[in-house]
Each structure stands twice: as structure tokens, then as C-alpha cells.
Amino acid sequence: MDPDTLFVVGLGLGVLSVPAVVSAISRGERPRIATITLMISGAMIVWAITNKPGGYPLEQVPAIVARVINRFT
Length: 73
Known about the structure:
Largest sheet: none
């Protein structure tokens, strides 16, 4: 899989799992699945960064997200 696509999917999973973690903690439950999803998201992002020559500069992240979304739409 393309590192850009994996990076964007990892970002998406990370963003979606944070509210699930907060919700589970506020209900007094353990956020098991949300934490696992957050860890998988982090692993995807780290893998994409290490396999992309030069990594991902922070100012290019919106352009990368837009490019990947345009590729699939």
C-alpha cells in the first residue's frame, strides 16, 4: 500500500478513536477497542513516515490528505 494512503487512513482512524476513548472513560468503562484502534492508527502513521523518503513535513499534511481523497473520489 502507498505510504500516503496508509498515513491518511491512520490519521482518520486516530481522529475517530479519540472520541471513543473519551466516551468510554467518561462512562467509567475501559476503552479496550478504542485504545487498540488508536495503537493501530499510530503504527500505520509511523510505518508510513518511516517508509516515505524524507518523511512528512507538517505543512504538507493537508495537501497529502487532499491528494489521497481526490485519488479515491
